[in-house]
Structures are given as C-alpha cells and as structure tokens.
Amino acid sequence: MFDFITAPLIVGFICLGIYGLFELFVRKKERLTLIEKLGEKLGTPDFDGKFSLPSYSGIKFSFSALKVGLLLAGIGLGLLLGFIIAMAFVPRYGYDNTWQIREVASIIYGASVLLVGGLGLVAAFLIEMKMSNKEKED
User: Distance between CA 76 and CA 115 in Å, rounded?
Assistant: First the structure.
C-alpha cells in the first residue's frame, strides 16, 4: 500500500548517511587546521589568567527535536488526510483493488504526506523564528 514512499525513503537515508560521513571528515579536518593555526599565533603568555569555566547563562536551544517532531506529526496527519480523501473521493477504494485505483490512491497519499509534512516544517520554522526573536528582545 505504501510502495510509493519506500524507494524515496531508502534513497534519502543513503544520501543522508553519505552526507553525514563526508561532513564528519570535513569537520575533523577543519578543526585540526584551526588548532594548528591558533597554535602558531598564540603562545603561553597569551593565556595567563584567561582560563575560566564557560558561562551557561545564555543557553542556546536546539530546534532539531521540534523540526523532527513536527515533520513526523505532519507525515502522520498527511497519511490520515490521504486516507480520508481516498475513501471519500475515489470510487470503490476499499472494495476494488485495480491498478488505476491503487495509482490514484498512491498519488493522493504522496501529495498529502508531502504537503502536510512541509507545512509541519514551516510551522517549526515559524516557532523557531518567534523564539529567537523573543530571545533577542530579552
């Protein structure tokens, strides 16, 4: 029933894994280069009396959990909306299993999942912007 989303999900996970691997190696190289350059420019007299514990008073929030949560909620609502649309507007959807009915239903499911999932990400962005503006005002 959900054959339309299997291939894009697999390709997406593979691309995400490859991207993460490359990003890991690039970050490591950038950090090593930065440490080498700082070591050349700074000597031990530059650090006298400047070591202290970091201040955690201005904690920065990560919005990745919000994004993932709203994306998954959007995907769930999109599947529910697709099911409701398919049951209401596709004739013989629950009774007949022909190729045309399956294709129309898969298009409805795919479009509703992408639409409502995208709306979930837009909502996450708006919440993130609102919270960052509120943080800047304080």
Answer: 11
Return the number of other C-beta atoms located less than 10 Å from residue 54's C-beta: 5
Mind spelling out the 3-state secondary structure of the chain?
A: CCHHHHHHHHHHHHHHHHHHHHHHHHHHHHHHHHHHHHHHHCCHHHHCCCCCCCCCCCCCCCCHHHHHHHHHHHHHHHHHHHHHHHHHHCCCCCCCCCHHHHHHHHHHHHHHHHHHHHHHHHHHHHHHHHHHHHHHHC
Closest to 58 (Cα-Cα) out of 135, 130, 131 = 135
Q: Which pTM value belongs to this model? A: 0.54
> What confidence tens digit (pLDDT) does each residue in 8-21 have?
889 999 999 999 99
| Per-residue model confidence as pLDDT tens digits over 67-88 | 899 999 999 999 999 999 988 9
Q: Please, are residues 75 and 110 in contact by the beta-carbon 8 Å criterion?
A: no
CA dist 69 and 119 (Å) reads 12
